[in-house]
Amino acid sequence: MSYTTGKLPSFLKNSLSVFLLCLSASTTQALGTDCPENPKLSGSVTFTGETRSLVIGFRQGQGVLSLEEGQEFPFSVRGFKFGETGTRDGTISGNVYGLQSPDDFPGVYQGVVSGFLAIAGKSDIVLVNSKCVTIVARVSAVGMNMSLEADQAVIIKFTDH
Length: 161
Hints:
By secondary structure, this protein is mainly beta. It is globular. It has one helix spanning about 10-30, and strands at about 40-65, 70-95, 105-130, 135-160. About 15% of the residues lie in helices and about 65% in strands.
């Protein structure tokens, strides 16, 4: 593989774009959207993914949003988290709250997560996007991972069936 001086390889361009988008969303969300305290249950999510990290964790995966009305929407997830080292593979399943329309689901989600995973374990996660859609889920993972308490941001996009 050869690189031309002054050009970034495509995998770095994609990673840099995700990082900048996450940073931008973090700033926007910090400025504040007041979300309702008890949003209505809208559906559920299940997805599988992986994290590879050395100080900065890169996450990616795919899943399905299942609405209460029976509709299903496949999606992909990508994101970063600072203060993390290790590798893990896992499944996440949980509930989605505050969804007014399926179009409110894609976007940048933020949450705070920390912990130590030695071989196998479970943890809970709460992620919220700028439209107040909230994912409350249980993570079941396998691997070795150490993570400081810090913000994480993930981008969720719908994919084709």
